[in-house]
Amino acid sequence: MSETSSATACTNGPAVIRAENLGLTFPTGDGDIVALSDVNLTIEKGDFVSFIGPSGCGKTTFLRTIADLEKPTSGTLSVNGMSPEEARKARAYGYVFQAAALYPWRTIEKNIALPLEIMGHSAGEQAERVKRTMELVNLSGFEKKYPWQLSGGMQQRASIARALSFDADLLLMDEPFGALDEIVRDHLNSELLKLWARTEKTICFVTHSIPEAVYLSTRIVVMSPRPGRVTDIIESTLPRDRPLDIRETPEFLAIAARVREGLRAGHSYEEGSV
Amino acid sequence: MNRTSLTTMQFALALLASGAAALGLVFSLPDPGSVPLLTVFFALGAAAMVRLIRPINLWFDGALMLLGAVALLLALPQTGAMPAHFWWALVASWAFAWLFVERLSAAIRAGHLPETGTGLVIPVIFGLALLVAWEVITRGANVPPVLLPPPSAIGARFMAETNILWADFVQTFIKSVLPGYAIGCLAGLAVAIAVDRSPFLKAGVMPIGNFMSALPIIGIAPIMVMWFGFDWQSKAAVVVAMTFFPMLVNTVAGLNAASAIERDLMHTYAANNWQTLMKLRLPAAGPFIFNALKINSTLALIGAIVAEFFGTPIVGMGFRISTGVGRLAIDLVWAEIAVAAVAGSAFYGVIALIERGVTFWHPSVRGGRA
Description:
The complex is a heterodimer of chains A (274) and B (370).
Chain A: H1 2-10, E1 15-28, E2 31-44, E3 48-52, H2 59-66, E4 74-79, H3 84-89, E5 93-96, H4 108-118, H5 123-136, H6 152-164, E6 170-174, H7 182-199, E7 202-207, H8 210-216, E8 219-224, E9 229-235, H9 250-273
Parallel strand pairs in A: 3-7, 3-8, 5-6, 6-7
Antiparallel strand pairs in A: 1-2, 1-4, 8-9
Helix pairs in contact in A: 4-5, 4-6, 5-6, 8-9
Chain B: H1 8-28, H2 36-47, H3 58-75, H4 85-109, H5 118-140, H6 151-160, H7 162-197, H8 199-214, H9 217-228, H10 232-255, H11 260-268, H12 273-307, H13 317-326, H14 330-358, H15 363-366
C-alpha cells in the first residue's frame, strides 16, 4: 500500500487529480462528522480509478470535493493543476450522479444538449455533439423520447451521454449503476469500458460492488469509514481489453480477494472503535 | 347471484323505482287518463318489476328515467300545487335515473362501454336530474319565487335580459377580473423570484404578504373604491390584492421544488443564477404556479363581484346581484349567479387545459410514476 501511494505521489507527470492530506469535516449540531481524513492520492491522465468502501467511508464525499460540490476543510486538492472551483468553472469534468436526474420536461436530446446550451455552444454544434454522444452510448433513435418513457438503464446511459457531451477530459461517476439490476449493470459496465477505451478519458468511479470495481479499474482505492480514509490502493494487473468472462480468471479473483481483505480490515477497525 | 346480475345497491334502487311507479299508478286511479303520458310511465315503471324474473337492459332504465322526467314536466300545473301522486313520479324517475347511472358507470368500469363519450353522459344526467327535481319541487310545492324561482323562470329571465347580462359580464369579468388577475399573478410571480434571490426580501416581504392575505376583502373593497374610484379600476385592485399572495407563496415553494441532484448538476456546469432559474427552477415550479393560477381564477371572480357591492357604476354582476335582491328580482339574481358560475368554470377550465399542455411531464398529468 505505502509502496503504491508513494510511487504515484512521486510521479511528476500530468496529474489530473492530486490530493494531499485532504480532510473534510461537517459540523453538525451533534458534533463534528469527519467525512475525510488525511487522504493522499494522485490520479494520472487516462486512469480508471474506482473508489470502494462501505457507506459512510467518504467515497462520494471525495468525488464531490473534486467536483467542488463540497469544500475541503484541510489539505490541498488540485484538479488539472487548478483549484476545484477553477476547474469547475473551466468545465473540466462531467459528473454522473446516482440517479439519472434528467429533467422530465426535456426530451432526451434536449437533456443531453443542456450543458451545451449553458456553455453557449452554437445550435449546429449542439446538434452535432448530441448526435455523436447519443451514438456513443447506443441511444440513437430515442432523441425525441422523454426520460419517463425510458427504462432506468437507458436513463442512466442518457445521463452519461449528457456528461460526455461537452467533452471534458475527466468523468466523475457516483455509483451510476447502483440502482440497476445485475444484467443491465453488466451490460453497461462493458459498454463503459469500451467508451473509456475510445474516448481516453480519466474516470473516477464510486461503487460498492467489488466485481464492478475490479472489472472496470486500472486502480482501486479502498476506503473505510469513521473517519473516511484510504486504507489501500490496488494497481490492477488485468489487461486493458477486458471481456466480461475475465471475471472468472484467477487473476481477477486474486484482485477481488485483495479488495475484500482491505474492506474487511477497515470494517474490523470500525467495529473496534465504535 | 341470480338477481339478474345487479348489485345489492342497484337491486334496492330498482325496487324503489318500480315500487314508487306502482304506488303512483294506484294513487292516480281515481283520476285515470287525465295525464296519459304519466300513466304510461307509471305502468311501464311498475312493469319493470319483471327484472325479478329476467334481466332488463340498462338503456331501458335510461328510457324510463327520460320518460318520467318529460311526463312530469309536461304534467306540471301552471298554478297551484301539483296532485299528490305526482310526487311518486318524481321519486320513481329519480330512482330510475340513479339506477341508470349506477349501471352505466358499472358497465364503463367493467369495460363493456367505451370511456369516451359515455363518461360525459353521467355528469350531464346528474345535472339535468338536479334541474328537473328543482323545477318540479319549486313549482309542484308552490315555493314562493322570492325564495327560490324554478329554473324555467331563471332561463326565461336570462333570455329576456341578455343585454344586461352581457354588459354586466363585460364590466365585471373582462374589465375587472382579467386585468386584476393578470397583474396580481404576474406581480406575485415577479416578487417570488425576487424574494427567492434575496434573503432580505424574504424576511421583509413574506410577512407583509402573509398580512395582506389575512386582510378581509370586505374591509379592503370600500378602501379600494375610495382610492381608485367607482369604475372597474377599484375592482381590479381588489382582485390584484386577492390573487397576489397565493401566487407568491406557491411560486416561492415551487422554486424550491427542484431536487438537490438537479441543482448540483447545474452547479457542475458552472451555470449562472439566471440559467439555473430559466432551465431548472422555473420549469420545476410549473405545477405550483399553475396551482396558484387555478386557485386565483375562482378567487378573482369572487373578489370582483363582492367589491361591486361597495360602489360601482350602474353595471356589473355584483351591482346587479345586490340591487336585484333589493328589488326582489330574484330570477335575475339567479341568472347572474348562473353567468358567474359558467364564466368561473370556463376560466378555470381554460387554465387547467393550458396546465395540461405546459406541465405534461408531471406525474399528476401524465398519470405515471415520479
